[in-house]
Structure formats: structure tokens, C-alpha cells
């Protein structure tokens, strides 16, 4: 039986929840949306490419909507909230997933490139968090998730801006959880390991040595699936995780434990 066809015990159900997922049209964000939808949530995808969002909403079907939005438009965060609430009502789960990636040596990374990565990951997610969090705290119910990375946990060469941004998520999660959790709003992150996505396949196609290195240092000896991350997001947003906040959950096949 497909995991998506497995009945959900009520404790893991997201029925009655509404999740906004940035970067939800592709890759890991797409899988998070798929799994949350399968768990019963109403889903809103946010991203810049309307054609991709339309395709995903059509694929998900009932309880799925989208809003075209660029999260680097920091002053426009309220517009995303207003459009989302007009479509589906109050958001109970915000998934800060959208991001960009620049791969080049640190000494070749320009200030403008570094700033663009920080604007997308750190400032973009902060703008949405402070826009949606007050309503969640007022209702004393909510979950905010960040998609962190192995770069949040240890050094990876040639991704210095990405590493800085994803490392910032660790501090943000802990600080926000400390402020928000007394008001019924939990804050957590998932740190995916190396996941089999279209993007990773393109990267590995021209660099088999890198793929072998990754597999050799992964205790399970395989790449993860996007759904591995998606089901972790379901757990963290569900009643089953009501006592879990301020944590970074690696979904990585054991890479981060070291050896």
C-alpha cells in the first residue's frame, strides 16, 4: 500500500488545519504540501511561478489553493496574508521553505550574492513569521516550520552564503520558540540530508564523485525521498508533536551523527 493511502490515526491528522507553504510547487516544498494534504490539511502554495503552482493545485485537488508571491518582497508580506486568508481563512501552519542556492568558493561569492541568499531565506521567512504569528498566538494554536539543512549543522564547502542563511534558521527557531511557545505557537525546523529531487539529480549527473562521497558517508547508504521530509513536517505540525518546540529535526539517513 502506498504511504499516501495509509489511514492516519487522529493524533497525526491535520484535518481542520490550514498550511501555507512557501516554495511549495517543487522539490521538498511540493512533498511537504502533498503529505500535509494527505493528512487532511487545507493547503495554500506560495511561489513566484504561477504555472507551476496551478499544476500542483490541480494535482492535489480539493483543499488546495495558491497565491503568487515573491518572499523577498518584504513589505508585501501582509498582502500574502490577506490573500491567503481571503481564500481559506486563518493559517494554522506556516512552512518557511522557499530558498535559493549559490554554489561557488567563499572568496568568489560577492556581497550582492550573499545578500540575495540572506534576503530570501532569513529576511523573507522573518517577514512572513512576524506577519502570521500574531494571529496564531491570539488563537493560541499554531505551528511554524523552517526547512533547514545539513549546512545548518556542519561545514560544507562552496556554499558559504547558503550555510550562513541555514545556520541562522537554528538561532531563529530557538529564539522564536522561546517567545512564541507560551502562547500556543510551536516553532521547529527540519534539516534534510541529501534528498533525491530533480535539482539533486541534475547536480549529481555531472559529478558522480560527489554522489559516491555522499552515499559513503550516509549510514543508510541511500538518498532520502522528498516524502521523508514531508511526513516529518506532518508530524511536527500535528497534535502528536504538541510538546515539541525549538527543535531541529534531521531527516538525513544518519549523516549528521558523524562517524
UniProtKB/TrEMBL annotation:
Keywords of this entry: Oxidoreductase
First and last residue of the signal peptide: none
Annotated Ketoreductase domain residues: 17-197
Coiled coil ranges: none
UniProt key word Oxidoreductase: yes
Pfam family, one: adh_short_C2
Homology family: Belongs to the short-chain dehydrogenases/reductases (SDR) family.
PANTHER family for this protein: 3-OXOACYL-[ACYL-CARRIER-PROTEIN] REDUCTASE FABG, SHORT-CHAIN DEHYDROGENASES/REDUCTASES FAMILY MEMBER
Protein name per its UniProtKB record: SDR family oxidoreductase
